[in-house]
Amino acid sequence: MLHQSVSLWDDAPAFHTIHHKIFAKRFFKEAYLNPELSQLISLQDVDVEIKRIKAETEALPIRREALESQFAAENKEFLDLKQQLDTALSQKRSLEEELEAEQQKLEKFKSDQMKATNEREYATSVREIDSAKKIISTLETELLKLMEQVEKLDAQVKERTPEIEAKRAEMERQVAEYETLAKADAEKLGKLLAERQPLIETLSSETRSTYERMSRIKSGLALSEAVDYKCLACRMTIRPQVYNDIRRGETIFTCENCGRILFFRG
Fold this sequence. Notes:
single chain; Helix Hairpins; five-stranded mixed β-sheet
């Protein structure tokens, strides 16, 4: 049966409290703890840890996403620089292919000029050679500028790479830690849930109902420790006789103010 603690001091003289404390120290050394109360204390310890692990598990993906977003934001300048280099290299390859094609045309036009059999064929080959040379000259100028750009971008990327790789390694290390923690949490949670089942199932219906109700409305803390004649959760004062009964642990008491189940942790 659950008993409700009284929150008012009686009118006994001051020495009454002192005598209670002395008596408690002498009498409660071999106190008998109510089995259900002991069970409730263990149950709350398990539930608090289950709640912590679930909250941590839910937070891990969010923390990982935040870490990756932070890495991307911090290194946006470098990533943009790398993209510029990749684009410049792609343009350089295209120009080189185009230049090679024009050089092959030039060689063909020169060969055609050598094979010309009349003035018209010769004049045509001259025009084609001049046009190919102009195109090649333009392509070579563009390629030279592009090579200088590639060289500059490549130097900047190489300069920044060690710093970025160090940051990436740190990010990957933390991500690996999160994955390890998530795995460990899953294992712990399984064990705690298995441990919790017999604790909750073997309580009396009244005690179980009180625990579940208080746990639901008190954010998982259905029990409160009684310390120095006060409920540690709400700070309500407990009468000396009731406090000593709580210390004895033979009967389950609830706080008159907050409704939590009171216990003394010796």
